[in-house]
Amino acid sequence: MSFFSRQGKDPAVVASKVPAHVAIIMDGNGRWAARRGLPRTAGHRAGLESARRVIREAGRLGIKYLTLYTFSTENWKRPPAEVDFIMNLPGEFWHSERRALEEANVRLKILGDLCALPAATRVVVEEAVAATRDALGLTVSLALNYGGRAEILRAAQLFVERYAGRGTEADFASCLYTEDLPDPDLLIRPGGEKRISNFLLWQLAYTEMIFLDKFWPDFTGSDLVQAVQDYQARVIRQGGIQG
Fold it and tell me: Which domain range does residue 225 map to?
Protein backbone atom coordinates (compact mmCIF):
# COMPACT_ATOMS: atom_id res chain seq x y z
CA MET A 1 0.00 0.00 0.00
CA SER A 2 1.26 3.47 -0.85
CA PHE A 3 2.24 5.88 1.94
CA PHE A 4 -0.59 8.09 0.70
CA SER A 5 -3.24 5.40 0.21
CA ARG A 6 -6.57 5.56 2.01
CA GLN A 7 -9.88 3.93 1.25
CA GLY A 8 -12.74 6.08 0.09
CA LYS A 9 -13.02 9.35 -1.78
CA ASP A 10 -13.91 12.90 -0.89
CA PRO A 11 -16.35 13.99 -3.62
CA ALA A 12 -16.70 17.47 -2.10
CA VAL A 13 -12.98 18.19 -2.59
CA VAL A 14 -12.37 19.75 -6.00
CA ALA A 15 -8.96 18.55 -7.17
CA SER A 16 -8.33 21.68 -9.24
CA LYS A 17 -8.93 23.91 -6.20
CA VAL A 18 -6.85 22.09 -3.60
CA PRO A 19 -4.57 24.63 -1.87
CA ALA A 20 -1.00 24.23 -3.08
CA HIS A 21 0.53 25.12 0.29
CA VAL A 22 -1.00 24.36 3.69
CA ALA A 23 0.68 25.50 6.90
CA ILE A 24 -0.29 24.13 10.32
CA ILE A 25 0.42 25.36 13.84
CA MET A 26 0.43 22.07 15.75
CA ASP A 27 -0.98 23.39 19.03
CA GLY A 28 -2.45 21.74 22.11
CA ASN A 29 -0.20 18.73 22.79
CA GLY A 30 0.42 19.67 26.42
CA ARG A 31 -3.21 20.49 27.19
CA TRP A 32 -4.34 17.27 25.49
CA ALA A 33 -2.05 15.31 27.83
CA ALA A 34 -3.02 17.28 30.94
CA ARG A 35 -6.73 16.56 30.41
CA ARG A 36 -5.89 12.85 30.42
CA GLY A 37 -3.65 13.02 33.47
CA LEU A 38 -0.60 12.27 31.33
CA PRO A 39 2.81 13.94 31.15
CA ARG A 40 3.25 16.61 28.49
CA THR A 41 5.65 14.30 26.62
CA ALA A 42 2.74 11.92 25.98
CA GLY A 43 0.99 14.77 24.20
CA HIS A 44 4.01 15.39 22.00
CA ARG A 45 4.22 11.71 21.08
CA ALA A 46 0.53 11.71 20.20
CA GLY A 47 1.15 14.88 18.19
CA LEU A 48 3.79 13.04 16.17
CA GLU A 49 1.17 10.46 15.20
CA SER A 50 -1.09 13.29 14.05
CA ALA A 51 1.74 14.63 11.91
CA ARG A 52 2.09 11.23 10.27
CA ARG A 53 -1.64 11.13 9.51
CA VAL A 54 -1.70 14.63 8.10
CA ILE A 55 1.36 14.11 5.89
CA ARG A 56 -0.34 11.06 4.40
CA GLU A 57 -3.61 12.90 3.85
CA ALA A 58 -1.90 15.94 2.37
CA GLY A 59 -0.15 13.78 -0.20
CA ARG A 60 -3.35 11.90 -1.00
CA LEU A 61 -5.25 15.17 -1.55
CA GLY A 62 -2.61 16.50 -3.93
CA ILE A 63 -1.32 19.28 -1.66
CA LYS A 64 2.16 20.15 -2.90
CA TYR A 65 3.60 21.89 0.16
CA LEU A 66 2.91 21.20 3.84
CA THR A 67 4.59 23.30 6.53
CA LEU A 68 4.38 22.22 10.18
CA TYR A 69 5.27 24.55 13.06
CA THR A 70 7.36 22.10 15.05
CA PHE A 71 9.39 24.12 17.59
CA SER A 72 9.57 27.88 17.95
CA THR A 73 12.42 30.08 19.14
CA GLU A 74 10.28 30.73 22.23
CA ASN A 75 9.84 27.04 23.05
CA TRP A 76 13.33 26.88 24.58
CA LYS A 77 11.68 28.39 27.69
CA ARG A 78 9.98 25.07 28.40
CA PRO A 79 11.38 22.57 30.97
CA PRO A 80 14.65 21.00 29.74
CA ALA A 81 13.26 17.46 29.90
CA GLU A 82 10.36 18.43 27.63
CA VAL A 83 12.69 20.20 25.19
CA ASP A 84 14.98 17.15 25.10
CA PHE A 85 12.01 14.91 24.33
CA ILE A 86 10.84 17.14 21.49
CA MET A 87 14.36 17.30 20.06
CA ASN A 88 14.42 13.52 19.78
CA LEU A 89 11.18 13.34 17.78
CA PRO A 90 12.60 14.40 14.37
CA GLY A 91 15.09 11.54 14.53
CA GLU A 92 12.42 9.08 15.63
CA PHE A 93 10.19 10.15 12.76
CA TRP A 94 12.96 9.98 10.16
CA HIS A 95 14.22 6.57 11.22
CA SER A 96 10.75 5.02 11.31
CA GLU A 97 9.40 6.63 8.13
CA ARG A 98 12.45 7.07 5.91
CA ARG A 99 11.69 4.23 3.53
CA ALA A 100 8.03 5.19 3.19
CA LEU A 101 8.86 8.86 2.65
CA GLU A 102 11.46 8.07 0.00
CA GLU A 103 9.10 5.67 -1.78
CA ALA A 104 6.40 8.37 -1.73
CA ASN A 105 8.85 10.90 -3.22
CA VAL A 106 8.49 13.28 -0.25
CA ARG A 107 11.00 16.11 0.09
CA LEU A 108 11.87 17.26 3.61
CA LYS A 109 12.91 20.84 4.30
CA ILE A 110 13.81 22.69 7.51
CA LEU A 111 12.83 26.29 8.21
CA GLY A 112 14.74 27.89 11.07
CA ASP A 113 18.15 28.31 12.65
CA LEU A 114 19.78 24.89 13.02
CA CYS A 115 22.83 26.22 14.86
CA ALA A 116 21.15 26.13 18.27
CA LEU A 117 19.83 22.58 17.92
CA PRO A 118 21.47 19.70 19.82
CA ALA A 119 24.15 18.10 17.67
CA ALA A 120 22.27 14.80 17.29
CA THR A 121 19.10 16.58 16.16
CA ARG A 122 21.00 18.74 13.70
CA VAL A 123 22.77 15.72 12.21
CA VAL A 124 19.56 13.76 11.66
CA VAL A 125 17.59 16.64 10.12
CA GLU A 126 20.48 17.49 7.82
CA GLU A 127 20.63 13.83 6.80
CA ALA A 128 16.89 13.80 6.08
CA VAL A 129 17.08 16.98 4.01
CA ALA A 130 20.05 15.69 2.01
CA ALA A 131 18.50 12.27 1.40
CA THR A 132 15.25 13.72 0.03
CA ARG A 133 16.64 16.81 -1.70
CA ASP A 134 15.80 15.61 -5.22
CA ALA A 135 12.31 14.28 -4.45
CA LEU A 136 9.60 15.78 -6.65
CA GLY A 137 6.47 14.95 -4.65
CA LEU A 138 5.02 16.57 -1.54
CA THR A 139 7.41 18.99 0.20
CA VAL A 140 7.11 18.78 3.99
CA SER A 141 8.77 21.71 5.76
CA LEU A 142 9.41 21.51 9.49
CA ALA A 143 9.69 24.90 11.17
CA LEU A 144 12.28 23.97 13.80
CA ASN A 145 13.84 26.58 16.08
CA TYR A 146 11.84 28.99 13.96
CA GLY A 147 10.61 32.51 14.72
CA GLY A 148 8.96 34.83 12.20
CA ARG A 149 10.59 37.99 13.52
CA ALA A 150 14.03 36.35 13.58
CA GLU A 151 13.49 35.17 10.01
CA ILE A 152 12.59 38.68 8.83
CA LEU A 153 15.62 40.16 10.61
CA ARG A 154 17.88 37.56 8.98
CA ALA A 155 16.27 38.23 5.60
CA ALA A 156 16.75 42.00 5.98
CA GLN A 157 20.44 41.50 6.63
CA LEU A 158 20.78 39.23 3.59
CA PHE A 159 18.72 41.64 1.50
CA VAL A 160 21.11 44.50 2.22
CA GLU A 161 24.12 42.32 1.46
CA ARG A 162 22.73 40.97 -1.81
CA TYR A 163 20.79 43.94 -3.16
CA ALA A 164 22.24 46.96 -1.33
CA GLY A 165 18.70 47.67 -0.11
CA ARG A 166 17.42 48.35 -3.64
CA GLY A 167 15.68 45.11 -4.48
CA THR A 168 12.02 44.22 -4.88
CA GLU A 169 9.57 42.35 -2.68
CA ALA A 170 10.43 39.22 -4.64
CA ASP A 171 14.12 39.81 -3.95
CA PHE A 172 13.37 40.14 -0.23
CA ALA A 173 11.30 36.93 -0.31
CA SER A 174 14.30 35.15 -1.82
CA CYS A 175 16.17 35.89 1.42
CA LEU A 176 13.63 34.05 3.58
CA TYR A 177 13.83 30.42 4.69
CA THR A 178 10.90 29.81 2.32
CA GLU A 179 12.76 31.12 -0.73
CA ASP A 180 11.76 28.11 -2.85
CA LEU A 181 8.20 27.78 -1.51
CA PRO A 182 5.03 29.63 -2.49
CA ASP A 183 3.27 31.53 0.28
CA PRO A 184 0.71 29.40 2.15
CA ASP A 185 -2.79 29.36 0.73
CA LEU A 186 -4.25 28.03 3.97
CA LEU A 187 -3.19 28.18 7.64
CA ILE A 188 -4.78 25.76 10.10
CA ARG A 189 -4.42 26.14 13.85
CA PRO A 190 -6.02 23.56 16.15
CA GLY A 191 -5.90 24.02 19.91
CA GLY A 192 -8.46 26.77 20.41
CA GLU A 193 -6.15 29.78 20.15
CA LYS A 194 -6.72 32.42 17.47
CA ARG A 195 -3.31 33.90 16.78
CA ILE A 196 -0.35 33.11 14.53
CA SER A 197 2.32 33.06 17.27
CA ASN A 198 5.29 34.47 15.35
CA PHE A 199 4.81 32.01 12.48
CA LEU A 200 5.52 32.94 8.84
CA LEU A 201 4.81 36.62 9.45
CA TRP A 202 5.84 37.73 5.95
CA GLN A 203 4.36 34.78 4.12
CA LEU A 204 0.86 34.87 5.67
CA ALA A 205 -0.07 38.29 4.24
CA TYR A 206 -2.98 36.90 2.16
CA THR A 207 -3.36 33.43 3.62
CA GLU A 208 -6.81 32.07 4.47
CA MET A 209 -6.99 30.95 8.12
CA ILE A 210 -8.94 28.29 9.97
CA PHE A 211 -8.91 27.97 13.77
CA LEU A 212 -10.18 24.81 15.45
CA ASP A 213 -10.97 24.03 19.09
CA LYS A 214 -9.74 20.44 19.03
CA PHE A 215 -6.17 19.78 20.13
CA TRP A 216 -3.51 18.73 17.64
CA PRO A 217 -3.29 15.08 18.83
CA ASP A 218 -6.98 14.72 17.97
CA PHE A 219 -6.54 16.21 14.48
CA THR A 220 -7.17 13.62 11.76
CA GLY A 221 -6.95 13.30 8.02
CA SER A 222 -10.70 13.94 7.92
CA ASP A 223 -10.12 17.28 9.67
CA LEU A 224 -7.66 18.23 6.94
CA VAL A 225 -10.22 17.27 4.30
CA GLN A 226 -12.84 19.42 6.05
CA ALA A 227 -10.42 22.37 6.20
CA VAL A 228 -9.74 22.03 2.47
CA GLN A 229 -13.48 21.95 1.78
CA ASP A 230 -13.89 25.09 3.90
CA TYR A 231 -11.09 26.77 1.95
CA GLN A 232 -12.65 25.84 -1.38
CA ALA A 233 -15.97 27.38 -0.35
CA ARG A 234 -14.39 30.79 0.27
CA VAL A 235 -14.14 33.67 -2.18
CA ILE A 236 -10.45 34.55 -2.28
CA ARG A 237 -9.74 38.06 -3.57
CA GLN A 238 -6.26 38.89 -2.22
CA GLY A 239 -6.93 42.62 -2.46
CA GLY A 240 -8.91 42.47 -5.70
CA ILE A 241 -12.64 42.13 -6.35
CA GLN A 242 -14.75 39.15 -7.23
CA GLY A 243 -15.00 38.64 -10.97
Answer: 22-232
Taking residues 144-164, what's their average pLDDT? 97
Domain count, the chain: 1
Asked, for residue 76, whether it belongs to a domain, the answer is yes
Summarised one tens digit per residue, pLDDT across range 182-232 is 999 999 999 999 999 999 999 999 999 999 999 999 999 999 999 999 999
Q: What HEC string does the chain produce?
A: CCCCCCCCCCCCCCHHHCCCEEEEECCCHHHHHHHCCCCHHHHHHHHHHHHHHHHHHHHHHCCCEEEEEEEECCHHHCCHHHHHHHHHHHHHHHHHHHHHHHHCCCEEEEECCHHHCCHHHHHHHHHHHHHCCCCCCCEEEEEEEECHHHHHHHHHHHHHHHHCCCCCHHHHHCCCCCCCCCCCCEEEECCCCCCCCCCCCCCCCCCEEEECCCCHHHCCHHHHHHHHHHHHCCCCCCCCCCC
* Mean local confidence (pLDDT), 127-144: 97
Does the pLDDT at position 243 exceed 60? no
Q: Give the model's pLDDT for residue 5.
A: 61
Residue 177 located in a structural domain: yes
What is the domain-level CATH number for residue 226? 3.40.1180.10
59 located within any domain:
yes
> What pLDDT is stored for residue 35 in this prediction?
97
Residue 5 domain-assigned? no
State the catalytic residues.
27, 75
